[in-house]
From TrEMBL:
It comes from the Bacteria. Pfam families: Acetyltransf_1. The lineage of its organism: Bacteria, Pseudomonadati, Pseudomonadota, Alphaproteobacteria, Hyphomicrobiales. It comes from Blastochloris tepida. The keyword Transferase applies. Keywords: Acyltransferase, Transferase. InterPro entries: Acyl_CoA_acyltransferase, GNAT_dom. Residues 1-152 form the N-acetyltransferase domain. Residues 1-10 have a biased composition (Basic and acidic residues). This is N-acetyltransferase.
Length: 181
């Protein structure tokens, strides 16, 4: 499997990957509707590929199985969406995509990753906690993440079940340079 930057020609296939990924929510009490919810459009993918940060997981002989996209904000690389085709979930592809985002952030001296997700869904908040993300309490959100959660609520998301998370990244380059010298 190759994790590589997404290309414009990948965009048409990505909404279908997200629709497939959402099937897992049919087993989540109260959130079954997510499986039929709107997904990012091809145009939104094209825009994030052109001006944001976008990676795909390309499986030899199968094509694209997953994507991650986001945008560089003043305080973090904010992940807007990560989705793995239902048939390929649970094999570490999501973890590899997060690692790619982390590497991108480290290479660009971006101090953190952020995202919003569902609380208490096994493949959301607890999963990201295992990957080093910390759930932010309301008072720690800052105006940017508060606005993201507010917009989600306006769009019909159940606010009580949503949270924002942050993974601080250690900027080790200076230390490595010192050791190398
Ligand atoms: C979240 C998602 C991107 C993770 O990608 P993935 O390739 O399946 O991730 P990984 O294989 O790296 O790990 C899956 C994790 O979810 C957990 N998980 C997955 N399905 C689960 C289930 N049905 N019950 C319990 N845990 C589950 C696994 O235990 C695993 O965690 P671990 O590696 O710490 O044990 C993918 O599951 C997905 O596309 N989900 C639907 C869309 C979604 O929720 N996107 C995120 C929006 S914030």
């Amino acid at each position: 499997m190759t994790i590589r930057p997404a290309r414009d020609c990948d965009a048409p296939g990505l909404p279908g990957i997200e629709r497939s990924s959402g099937e897992i929510f049919r087993q989540s009490p109260g959130l079954e509707w997510i499986a039929d919810d709107t997904v990012q459009s091809e145009e939104q993918h094209r825009a994030l590929i052109a001006t944001g940060v976008a990676f795909v997981a390309d499986l030899p002989g199968h094509g694209i199985a997953a994507f991650l996209n986001g945008e560089v904000m003043p305080d973090a690389l904010h992940i807007w969406q990560i989705a793995v085709h239902r048939d390929r979930q649970g094999r570490g592809i999501g973890r590899k995509l997060i690692e790619a985002a982390e590497q991108f952030a480290a290479d660009h001296e971006i101090p953190a990753l952020t995202l919003t997700t569902f609380r208490d869904v096994p493949w959301n908040e607890p999963y990201y906690q295992r990957l080093g993300f910390v759930t932010l309490e309301r008072g720690d959100l800052g105006s940017r993440l508060r606005a993201v959660l507010d917009a989600e609520e306006q769009a019909g998301m159940p606010a009580a079940r949503r949270c924002a998370m942050r993974k601080p990244l250690h900027q080790g380059h200076g230390l490595m340079a010192a050791v190398t010298v």
